[in-house]
Design a protein that fits this description.
The complex is a heterodimer of chains A (about 575) and B (about 280). Chain A has about 575 residues and is an alpha+beta fold. Helices cover about 25% and strands about 15% of the residues of chain A. Chain B folds into two domains: about 160 residues, no CATH class; about 110 residues. Classes of the chains: A alpha+beta (about 575), B mainly alpha (about 280).
Chain lengths: ~575, ~280
């Protein structure tokens, strides 16, 4: 039987201890919150039967926990003998073994040292009921994001532009600092250098200057050759007004008719200030585009070239100096040749140039000589006069007949001293003189036959001249028009799906003065204007015209008319 | 009569203004045919860009205005109404400004950020119009404060009843009172749930263990069960309230920081355009 004096310690509001005593007895003292526990502790942190105090065989009192370890003076034990002064923690209670008195086996005081906290306060403490309590701050997110963006997209690119040596990391970034500022794809031809903005944007806060373009495009011409007129008409216009970069990766030359029509639809109001303007207003290819102007050689000189409208009253004819009937050459029956009748096609003579734009120059050697042979001596078909200067032809003839007159293989029987003799039988000086005279006379006779009767005059205009007694003929220089419409960018290759005759009526042309360049009506059968129309190719100004065509350079300067007019001049020589 | 919301403010005054400006912008866009195509650098592009930037600064000013205590409620309602409708207008103005060209660059970053800000604002409008009413319906007379006190009372009562019940039940009840929380982390607040909620666990245990009890203990256990059930209902109610608060608040975590980020991107955009003009 254990008799125990129990001192319950509580504290008042000022924290002073209040002792309350009672005595309990039993064979053992059960501690717990259960109703069967003599030392009843009403706290949820205490088990129903938490521990027991009882005598052991050694006659001492022991405290034994039923389940968990208990804190005996700071050490955790399951069972421990009770000694005076011992402090034991059971749940939230602290037990102290007090000095024994005479009446009891044990004096035990206990105090609730860890009372349950206030539930409402604790619940609030545990609960976070607004997002701001989670520690996530809108302000800090905002500042971090703004700082990152400002650094990456403002400070670094600006620094990179001003002092690139300071931004060494720029090359290692997934997209370069310049790319981060690039508003759109750079045209393919500029991509090689345009990853570096400064190549074109040379000065900060200044629009791209024309110099940025012309430093490479050195030969590009203005729209108008006269600098003063160009300046007054296009003063404010910069390259980038029409050539817009960062738009697409294809070419940056804009194909918008509005760019041309802006001015060309209202030239008449500009004529008052710019009387040099000769063009009329135009709105669209399909409506009021004027008739084509052909570059035509109008006089004997190669600079006598005028641009004449196809619908003008003047009859248009080509003065090439060449006699060439297309109808004979293109006859379906064929044309006489050394191999008999041969049927020719356009392409036999007109072979496209490498660009497929126009055609290679026609030459006597390549295109004519296989039929038009320059043989002069019927007995010797292997010899021909050269296709070239009259004097050269004459030299050839004289040399040939000279050699015949003294050679060993006579080809002819000459009359010398009234007798038919072989010309090689020349022994005396007088005889040689006679032979030489014969050779000259023979050469002159053959030349006359060649130039005036049989060969040269077939294709060339040949006139007699008294200026040169040794070569008394003049061949009109051949000037074949290579480009009738030098102000457009027409390319034959783009039209290769059409037969030549679709546009060029040459089969029935008997005269080389005929011009078979199609007129605007022919073009309009396929080409519409800027607005799409069914079964027509939508065609803007840029489809045929360039703004900077180099030929324009000479439009008003008059310096290189041939370049402007596109006439190809062939003088008598070869090719 | 129902009080008009900020959307209906002054007979849809700002809706009308915005609709007019939007129509003006769209018609001008459709009828102007820049030779070089629509983009930010045409005269219309610059005009729309300037207008867009002006509207952005006006909308950002709302954030400042809102925090000024001197502003009256009516004043703020007018500002909010303008803020919302001009925000919608901004989508049209700035999209036309871009000429529908986007890429991987600062310019499009500014645009995308702006769109996120505006669309988060749409959610905000939806939330403000819908959630407060739902919260009132769900809470009735209660407040979060009163719910906390009631939950705490039930906890105390449950612990008291559980004292006489087996240790396992007692422990789980104590755990339920000490570990249950309302709200919590960002996602817990938004979900309105607590994973492995101690109160729900307690309820299960009380039911399963309690079925083996007899007499007085069975009676006490039944009482405990109803107390915990009641607590669970209150906890759910409180969590739902927190969830609605979080949903009312969450969009601002996008709207506000991204609007400041967008301002930085806008400045970078404008500087870059004119730096490399």
């Amino acid at each position: 039987m254990i008799s125990c004096k129990l001192i319950v310690v509580t504290r008042n509001s000022r924290g002073q201890a209040i002792h309350e005593q009672r005595e309990i007895t039993g064979d053992n003292l059960r501690i717990g919150r259960g109703a069967n526990c003599i030392l009843h502790l009403s706290d949820p942190r205490i088990n129903l039967h938490h521990a027991t105090i009882e005598y052991a065989d050694d006659g001492r009192l022991y405290l034994e926990s039923t389940d968990e370890l208990l804190n005996f003076n700071g050490e955790f034990r399951k069972r421990e003998a009770l000694r005076v002064g011992s402090r034991i923690l059971i749940g939230p209670y602290q037990f102290i073994i007090e000095e024994k008195d005479n009446e009891n086996d044990l004096v035990l005081s206990y105090e609730l040292v860890s009372p349950l906290p206030d539930d409402t306060t604790e619940l609030k403490k545990r609960s976070r009921t607004s997002l701001t309590q989670t520690g996530l701050s809108k302000r800090s997110i905002a500042l971090i994001l703004a700082a990152l963006i400002t650094l990456a997209f403002l400070i670094l690119p600006v620094l990179n532009a001003i002092k690139p040596e300071l931004v060494t990391v720029a090359d290692k970034l997934p997209i370069t600092l310049d790319e981060a500022w690039n508003p759109g794809p750079i045209s393919a031809s500029h991509q090689a250098f345009a990853q570096d903005c400064k190549q074109c944007h040379s000065k900060p806060f200044v629009q791209v200057e024309d110099q940025a373009c012309t430093s490479c495009h050195k030969d590009i011409n203005d729209h108008v050759a006269n600098k003063a007129v160009q300046a007054s008409l296009f003063g404010e216009t910069r390259c980038t007004s029409c050539h817009l970069e960062h738009k697409e990766s294809h070419a940056i030359a804009l194909r918008n008719p509005a760019l041309c029509i802006d001015c060309h639809s209202d030239l008449k109001t500009r004529k008052s200030t710019h009387p040099e303007i000769v063009l009329n207003d135009i709105h669209d290819f399909s409506s009021d585009h004027p008739a084509f102007k052909l570059s035509i050689k109008t006089g004997p000189s190669i600079s006598d070239v005028r641009r004449i409208e196809q619908d003008s009253k003047t009859e248009l004819e080509e003065n090439s100096g060449l006699i060439f009937p297309h109808d004979v050459h293109l006859s379906a029956k064929g044309v006489n040749s050394p191999d008999g009748l041969t049927t020719l096609q356009c392409s036999n003579c007109h072979t496209p140039d490498e660009a497929g734009v126009r055609f290679k120059q026609i030459s006597m050697e390549s295109h004519c000589s296989s039929c038009h042979r320059l043989e002069f001596e019927p007995a010797v078909t292997t010899r021909q006069v050269p296709h070239g200067e009259v004097a050269t032809v004459m030299t050839t003839l004289r040399e040939f007949y000279g050699s015949q007159s003294i050679g060993e293989a006579p080809i002819d029987v000459a009359t010398i001293d009234g007798l038919l003799r072989r010309p090689e039988k020349i022994e005396a000086k007088a005889a040689r003189t006679r032979a030489d005279l014969w050779a000259k006379q023979k050469a002159n006779a053959i030349a006359t036959d060649l130039f005036e009767v049989r060969v040269c005059n077939t294709c060339h205009e040949v006139t007699r001249t008294e200026n040169d007694l040794q070569a008394p003929w003049k061949i009109t220089p051949v000037a074949i028009t290579q480009h009738w419409l030098p102000k457009n960018t027409f390319a034959h290759k783009q039209h290769s799906n059409s037969a030549c005759a679709t546009c060029h009526n040459t089969v029935n042309s008997a005269n080389s003065k005929d011009i078979s360049i199609p007129d605007i009506a022919t073009c309009r059968t396929c080409h519409g204007g800027a607005k799409p129309v069914r079964n027509k190719v939508t065609s803007t100004c840029e489809s045929c015209h360039g703004f900077h065509l180099p030929t324009h350079q000479n439009l008003s300067s008059g310096k290189k008319q041939t370049a402007h007019t596109g006439i190809m001049i062939k003088t008598g020589g070869s090719p | 009569m129902q009080r008009s919301t900020f959307l209906e403010y002054d007979n849809y005054r700002y809706l009308k203004i915005s609709a007019f400006l939007a129509a003006l912008a769209i018609i001008t866009y459709l009828f102007s045919k820049p030779a070089i195509g629509h983009y930010g650098g045409t005269w219309l592009g610059y005009t729309l860009g300037t207008a867009g930037a002006a509207i952005i600064f006006f909308l950002l000013w709302f954030g400042v205005r809102k925090r000024q205590y001197k502003s009256s409620a009516i004043d703020l309602k007018s500002w909010l109404s303008a803020h919302v409708y001009l925000g919608v207008l901004l989508i049209i103005i700035v999209t036309l400004h871009t000429g529908f060209e986007l890429g991987w660059n600062i310019h499009s970053l500014a645009y995308v950020l702006m769109m996120i800000v505006i669309f988060s604002g749409f959610y905000g409008v939806y939330a403000y119009l819908r959630f407060p009413r739902m919260m009132t319906e769900k809470m009735g007379e209660e407040t979060l404060e009163s719910l906390f006190m009631k939950i705490a009372d039930l906890d105390r009562e449950a612990r008291r009843v559980a004292l006489q019940l087996p240790d396992e039940i007692n422990r789980i009840v104590l755990n339920g009172s000490q570990q249950t929380r309302i709200g919590g982390s960002f996602f817990q607040q938004l979900s309105g749930r607590q994973k492995n909620c101690p109160t729900s666990l307690a309820l299960e245990k009380i039911q399963s263990i309690g079925s083996q009890l007899k007499d007085e203990q069975a009676k006490a256990n039944r009482e405990l069960y109803f107390l915990t059930l009641k607590k669970q209902a209150l906890v759910t109610q409180a969590r739902e309230d927190v969830m609605f608060r979080a949903r009312l608040e969450i969009w601002l975590y996008f709207h506000v920081p991204l609007s400041i980020a967008m301002l930085a991107a806008l400045i970078a955009h404008v500087v870059s355009v004119f730096f490399y003009w």
